[in-house]
Amino acid sequence: MLSRTAENLFWIARYMERAETMSRLLEVGARISLTPSAGHGYRSEWESLLQASGTAEGFAEKYGDPVQRNIESYLFFDRDNPSSVISCIERARENARIVRTAITGQVWDTLNTAFQDIRQLERKPRSEMETSDLCDWVNRQSSLLRGTMDSSMLRNDGFSFMNLGYALERADNTARLIDVKYFVLLPSVSMVGSGFDNYQWQVLLRAMQSHRAFHWAYGGEITAAKIVDFLILNPSSPRSLMSAAQKAMRHIDSLSRFYNQPSGPAQERVRGLVDALKATRVPEIFDEGMHEFLTRFIHDIGDLTALVQRTYLTGEAQ
Amino acid sequence: MTDYFNEMFDGGKVRPPYNGLDGWTREMPAEFRAMKQAEAEALFRRIGITFAVYGEGGDPDRLIPFDMFPRVFTQMEWRKLERGIKQRARALNAFLLDVYGRGEIVRAGRIPARLVYQNDAYERAVSGFVPPRGIYSHIVGIDLVRTGPDQFYVLEDNCRTPSGVSYMLENREIMMRMFPNLFRENRIEPVDGYADALRRTMASVAPAKCDAEPTIAILTPGHFNSAYYEHSFLADLMGVELVEGADLFVEGGFCWMRTTEGPKKLDVIYRRIDDAFLDPLCFRPDSMLGVPGLMDVYRSGGVTICSAPGAGVADDKAIYTYVPEMVRFYLGEEPLLENVPTWQCAKKDDCKYVLEHLPELVIKEVHGSGGYGMLVGPKSTKEQIEAFRHKIIDDPDNYIAQPTLALSTTPTFVEEGVAPRHVDLRPYCLVGDKIELVPGGLTRVALTEGSLVVNSSQGGGVKDTWVLAE
């Protein structure tokens, strides 16, 4: 497979996962804003959400004050924001168009339809659209894509590159989402474990559409420790860091099997990452400091991505 | 009022090729038609066949209008055309081999040396080089128009990289999907063998240094190109890689693709970029689309480039006039297809005639394409004609003129129902170890009433083209 083709496939998945993360962030923000704040009016966490999504600067330059309608537009429909849902979907579709021959008709159809649809949505007056409907729509598109990939694609290197894109992007995004919650949303460390703290965790679970799963898995009282276990260490939780890392490992392994190559640096790296997560216990994360732990993890994922890049996407002989 | 040949109706009578379609349209309710038209559009948009028009801005995902009314040829009509097209393809290739070799046709005084050797499309870089099997143009697209039951004219030859074949294939797919009954009732020759034939043609011209099954790839300028859909569509059907210049590099006398498993040798390149961009070391130094050093590999027999660099000198509008002469000179045959009578403004007498008869003629730029830079005399205003008069006087060498042809019409779905619209035809002839032509081609239709310009960049549409089995 051409390195460029592999790279495009890798990025289709990354863009779609990123679009989903953006819409989940938007959902968190919208939900929080419906909650009355302690004194009067409503709570607003938009500022911190913008920071979490890495788009605060761009937003401030364009709009100034964080007004909900503007933020929604910026995160969803603004092409000036490279991480907005529309930017991600357009780029995913453009990448798909470039490698049209490396994906199945169904996968193309899903991406192309999403692209046509969002351009229709864009023309509708914003007052006619509920944020939650938009977020549902995005989740549906990414589910459709995963479904068509799963049901129609050959289990070859292209399939692995796409899944690798998903896994690495999800690992990075989930870590950032948790980090928002912990580092940005929570005003002071003393509030860890307070009722306020737990409420925010629930919002986060909801945004990841995992609150049901969480209750099935743990039951009882929602505690910070349980949630940290669920979102970071539990391999049966689909959005956990562990799940993402394991998925990345599976697909890196598939690639080297597919190419009949001996274990390389990318494989060693991902194995190390998974083993380290396996050996980690919740109290250790709290001891290290959640933010420090997540920052380290995000950094490791970045390294791993660079190794995958170097191994497969430059076209150099190994 | 010119009398145009209508391919379906001869007076009140339906001509034989269209017998199977008369009832079809007569019985089709308007709502059904509208529904099918919408379905066709949705299908095209979903598969992503779109066409970007150069220099117009606007929607980059514009669709070429598809007309559901097929254009039909009988087997007899087609066989005649086929013989003529293959003959022309052979002559054009013989000409190319000759002018990059000894130039016998020039020495014999049949074509002026200036037109060949001072032509912009003549590539000195390949002078003296003989490509595998001596073939320069592997895909020859010949644009034809019809003016009567037995009268066809060649409008122009395309020896470089004729586009549009994806429409031929997709138009058929969509028609078969929407109207399977038509294909049950009419026995229509299939066109879906084209991609395989193209791959076989490419494989048959693998370079001397290739000692295994040749690796073939299509070289595209990239996804911003208006024909990108076609490039990826063909790569998919042929089962070959679609590469950009940056995916390739040259080392040790071969051309390599960058792949996830390291470099892979490439043997045959079907390029869809112009000569000028192929190799910045040989042609335009600012080209980002090509592969540095590619031409060295090509000339030393490490890779085949289809069509061969330099093939463009055969499809120039000034050379066009001499194609019948080529047929006689190289093949010793009489041309089966006629040229449109052409006045060359470069010739003094011709130029005088042209300037005196501008309102009746079609004026074209020698190097123009896509329906740009042309004047259709009878359809132009006085001002437009006068503007062109000045252009011709300023640079006569740059223009040719042809009579306004009475292009045939075929029934076409229009707002009010079915009406005759003017059409042309581009069949695609493949030249490798053998010469092949799939039974069909791209029919382009001028959708505006009375218009004779069929180019998609000028609002033309496309039709499925049928050749009936015997």
TrEMBL record, chain A:
Ranges where the DUF403 domain occurs: 1-313
Pfam family, one: Alpha-E
InterPro entries, alphabetized: ATP-dep_Glu-Cys_Ligase-2, DUF403
Protein name stated in the entry: DUF403 domain-containing protein
Origin organism lineage: Bacteria, Pseudomonadati, Pseudomonadota, Alphaproteobacteria, Rhodobacterales
UniProtKB/TrEMBL annotation, chain B:
Positions of the Circularly permuted ATP-grasp type domain: 70-446
One Pfam family of this chain: CP_ATPgrasp_2
InterPro entries according to UniProt: ATP-dep_Glu-Cys_Ligase-2, CP_ATPgrasp_2, UCP005522
SUPFAM superfamilies, alphabetized: Glutathione synthetase ATP-binding domain-like
Ranges annotated as spanning the membrane: none
Domain of life: Bacteria
Name assigned to this protein: Circularly permuted ATP-grasp type 2 domain-containing protein
